[in-house]
Design goal:
The chain is α+β, with helices and mostly antiparallel strands. The chain has two domains: about 260 residues, Distorted Sandwich (Glucose Permease (Domain IIA)); about 45 residues, Membrane-bound Lytic Murein Transglycosylase D, Chain A, CATH 3.10.350.10. The chain has eight helices and 18 strands. Strands 2, 5, 6, 7, 8, 9, 10, 11, 12 and 13 form a ten-stranded antiparallel beta sheet that branches. β14 and β15 form a beta hairpin. α7 packs across α8. The N and C termini lie far apart (about 40 Å). It binds zinc ion. Zinc ion (ZN) binds next to loops.
Length: about 325
């Protein structure tokens, strides 16, 4: 299919992370206008290659191996009849105006991993990861109807797909609990699920995708996460630029992260305690640790730890490394 070929070529060419130049007018909410101007100023030389790599390095550091890519693409083959992608044989327009006026942020967390190519996993990350704690409320991004609530052990965990009135679909992954059922209508901002750490996830977070005709768009092209808003009222899907982040700045995300962590200090402390005790699904390596010590303390076997984390019994553990316990 010609379109698929185009996508493949685009995927190869567009592996970098950069800010698209957009003819659209930026949204500048009063309270954020000054900050926005600063962000735009910070980005003036983002095309500088070193800067872009700094940004990617920052994001890689943030990623902290939280999540491996889902092994099955839910929008391609392998769907049962209930999960058929209705877009498979549809013609995707080169450009399409999508009304995103009436929106809600799915969760107020900061970005922990960006959309795009992940060197570590050598594949595309089709969504954006947002910091969340187990039990946090996840909200519908736009008005719509629940298309699917499902579970994928080796991928998204518990996940919800919503078909929206504006033509987009959104995907919410690694959830701990559904608050909606299939075919239910929801408004932007309605609670749809609780955040979790299910599926191929190594620390509680929300995996969030925005798709048009089944094609994953960079959520940061639509949403301005550090300012908790959208960039514009109309998002113009463009077959050549849908992968690009808009107005993305690692510095602004870092700033927002600091604010968010401060505002949610108790949750972060509680989560850290759970991890340290080994009651959670993950454990952070400390000085003096060995696989056998960790296995004994947590009632698992070395073999299990190796299998879960792709390690060998002889693998060298790094202090600070997060491994999966169960
Ligand atoms: Zn993700």
């Amino acid at each position: 299919m010609l379109f698929n070929k185009k996508i493949t070529v685009a995927a190869v060419l567009l592996m970098g992370l950069w800010v698209s130049t957009s003819a659209q007018e930026y949204r500048l909410p009063d309270s954020h206008a000054a900050e926005h101007r600063n962000l735009i100023a910070e980005q003036s030389n983002i095309n500088d290659k070193i800067k872009v790599e700094d940004t990617k390095q920052f994001l890689d550091d943030l990623l902290n191996d939280e999540e491996a890519e889902p092994e099955i693409d839910i929008y391609t083959e392998g769907w049962d009849s209930k999960r058929v992608n209705p877009y498979v044989n549809a013609v995707v327009p080169d450009t399409k105006d999508i009304d995103v006026t009436n929106f809600s942020m799915p969760h107020p967390g900061y970005v922990t991993s960006d959309y795009g190519y992940r060197r570590r996993f050598r594949r595309q990350h089709k969504g954006i990861d947002i910091k969340a704690h187990i039990g946090d409320t996840i909200r519908s991004a736009f008005n719509g109807k629940i298309r699917l609530t499902n579970y994928e052990r080796r991928g998204y965990g518990y996940y919800v797909i919503i078909r929206h009135e504006n033509g987009l679909e959104t995907v919410y992954g690694h959830l701990s609990k559904f608050l909606v059922t299939e075919d239910q209508y929801v408004k932007a901002g309605d609670p749809i699920a609780l955040a979790g750490n299910t599926g191929r996830s190594f620390g509680a977070h929300l995996h969030f995708e925005t798709r048009y005709m089944g094609i994953p768009i960079n959520p940061a092209a639509i949403f301005d996460f550090p300012n908790q808003t959208t960039h514009t009222d109309i998002y113009t899907f463009d077959i050549n630029t849908y992968k690009n982040a808009r107005n993305y700045s690692a510095a602004s995300n870092r700033k927002y992260m600091a604010k968010y962590r401060e505002e949610n200090k108790a949750k972060f402390e509680a989560a850290a305690k759970t991890t340290a005790k080994g009651n959670g699904k993950t454990y952070r390596i400390r000085r003096g640790d060995s696989l056998s010590k960790i296995a004994t303390r947590n009632g698992v076997t070395v073999k299990q730890l190796c299998r879960l984390n792709g390690l060998k019994t002889t693998s060298k553990l790094q202090i600070g490394q997060v491994i999966r316990l169960r």
